[in-house]
Specification:
By secondary structure, the chain is mostly helical. The protein is built from 26 helices and ten strands. The protein has helices spanning 2-11, 17-33, 35-45, 56-63, 69-78, 111-116, 169-190, 202-217, 219-229, 240-246, 266-273, 280-289, 312-322, 327-334, 340-352, 354-359, 369-384, 388-398, 400-413, 438-441, 446-456, 459-466, 469-482, 502-523, 531-552, 585-599, and strands spanning 88-89, 94-98, 124-128, 133-134, 248-249, 258-259, 416-418, 431-433, 488-489, 579-580. The strands form five sheets. A two-stranded antiparallel sheet has the order 1-4. Strand 5 (248-249) and strand 6 form a beta hairpin. Helix 7 runs parallel beside helix 13 (312-322), helix 12 (280-289) packs across helix 23 and helix 15 (340-352) crosses helix 18 (388-398). 41% of the residues are buried.
Length: 604
Amino acid sequence: NEYKSYLSMVWTRQLDHKDKKEFSSHLKELYRREPQQFDTLLSKLINPKSKEKFDAEKCLTVICGGHKLDEFTKIIKSNDRSVICGLVWDANFIAYRCKTCGITPCMSLCAECFENGNHEGHDFNMFKSTAGGACDCGDVEVMKACGFCSRHGPKSAETKRNIAPDVTLMVELVVPKLIHFLVCKLEDATFEKHEKVGKLKDEVKDVTGLLLQLCEMGDLTRNIVAQNMLHRTQKKLISGSELTSKVTVKTDVDMPPYNIIRRQSSKDISRELGINEGTESSSLIQSVVEPAGPSKTCDVTYLVPFDGNETILEKVIDLLIELKFPQLLVTLVLSMLQEVDYKREFMKAFCCRYSKIANLLTHRYEKDEDHKLCNRLVHASVQLFSNENLTYTMVENNNLLTIIVTALSDLISRTLIKLDKEHHDINRTLFVVNCDHDIINNNRFWPVVSDFHNLLSHSKIARYFLQEPALIRRWMGILVHLTGMNKNLRQLIVHVTHESLAYQCAYSTEVEISSHIMMNLLAVCGSVAEKDAVGLVLSECVRALRSWFRMTQVQIVKPFLSEIEGEAMTTTGPIPRQEISFQLPLHRYLAAFISQGFSFALIN
């Protein structure tokens, strides 16, 4: 009764410095004596339906369990045994990258870990982060052990802790209610309109900040938050057929509703572009959108797992997508990636929803908002795809390469325009990328291309890609639409004062989408073991070029005149002398792989 009267007295007023420690101790004692009464009291404090403002400071007082906040933080940090640093940062953060120690090109270090590590004489650089990142110090999958600082690495986990067994008792009791509060408030936010993309209300910021503060204290509190995120909810997911039939969102003003899970069929895309069925162009689009031949692929319609219920983490990721990846929430979910089980489940959930995430890039946003959204998407994905073994598992078991290439082909298909018919005697059927389209002009394809590039930077995954004929054929189908884009007509008599911005956009688009990926693939084609891979790329490249020549109605010479698998070739008219395009990625692929084949005696 004394405890109850005391708690009732202080519960409704602000606590001074002395009261906080005493109040926290009384709450801990109340839990030991009357756990049900404690739970009732805690539920009043953290109630998503309450009209009172969420009190993060009072929650921290409860969490400290009889200690002052600075004392509790010091205890947790002094017993931190984190193997990986995992410090998460936003844009404009100064970080380091050591090429000598790095296993993957996207490896990065915070200043503290870099300065405490041994990088003397190494090839390193300091950079200002544009999209955000996380410190990889201690991660043996991303960097060599010689570059670890004294605080991180596998040896850190071997150090014994000097801590009372019940120091995190209150954390274990409060965190589940905080996560429930966060999920409820995020669900409410999805039904409200926000002026800007990725903005959160103050109460959501407060509870997210509190959970983030616990994660940053050390592995003792971070593990509690991560394990609670992996608990399963009781809410049953709808079936795949219900999802694909009911869930649609509006994209561009002049485009039809686009399903966030099921991609559009080749017939739908052809119909939107005004292409008749049975033509060369419709066949090409079908080869891009719908792969043919034996392949370890799956239908991306059913990528979301319907196993009866979902984890809280999956629910949070769904809400993250609905709210356009708010930065504070992104930082929270990334701050627990040091926990192995959490990272595996996060990556699986992220990849299963990749099509839905990529669909965000098809929407139109206010000025600069699309750029910020792209940065937040890359901030999340780059942390996941830096681990080669875990990423390769997702490629093998969850068809990650297929998902990403499909997402990119969907984005490219939205930007296509018909190559202008400048001569009455030429009937072109080629559709090329429109460099003035929002997706291209605002570089909204960058997150998907960046993920594809990061995947292929792992040699094991690049070799896997080169063994998949259907994936290579789909990739060549994408390059067909880049070849010949930004067609230039020679201007006579009238002087051209200013060149179009499409020039710069066309070059950067080819470099980002085509050239970087080509260099990833060439990097693994340096031995006799890759002879078949080089031959496969050349074969598919020739096939794509033959289609391109037919659709551009350009006269061609051998070897493209010869038949391939019974496919006849017909000659056409000469090239119009007043037209030129500098964007020829298919030709560059052909030249590069022929050169690579001769250099390593892979072809004769």
